[in-house]
Structure formats: structure tokens, C-alpha cells
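Task: sequence design from structure.
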């Protein structure tokens, strides 16, 4: 369905925005005494990138 593909594409765009926001926060914690926060946020970023790729593949398949 075209409307589903459009909505999924929009969601992928939202996750791309989240990736940038999460990465920016992570960068602020690099080299601080809370580098553990940066590490965890980079893990979140990686998960969001995977989710975005899956959304993109699914969108193309519709």
C-alpha cells in the first residue's frame, strides 16, 4: 500500500533525526568522566541505524 510506504519512509526520516541527536549528546560526553554515557549512546545510535535500514528495506518492498 502506497500510504504505508509513505508512512514508513517518514518514520525512517524520524529515526535519522534521532540518530543525529543521540550522536550529538554522545559526543558531548566523550573524554569526560561520563564516557560510559557516550558508549551507551553510541550503542543506541547503532540500534537506530539498524532500525532505519530495516525500515528502508521494508519501504522499498512495498
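Answer:
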Amino acid at each position: 500500500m502506497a500510504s504505508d510506504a509513505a508512512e514508513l519512509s517518514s518514520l525512517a526520516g524520524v529515526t535519522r533525526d534521532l540518530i543525529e541527536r543521540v550522536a550529538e549528546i554522545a559526543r558531548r560526553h566523550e573524554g569526560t568522566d561520563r564516557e560510559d554515557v557516550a558508549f551507551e549512546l553510541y550503542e543506541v545510535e547503532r540500534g537506530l541505524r539498524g532500525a532505519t535500514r530495516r525500515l528502508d528495506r521494508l519501504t522499498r518492498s512495498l
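The chain is about 90% helix and 0% strand.
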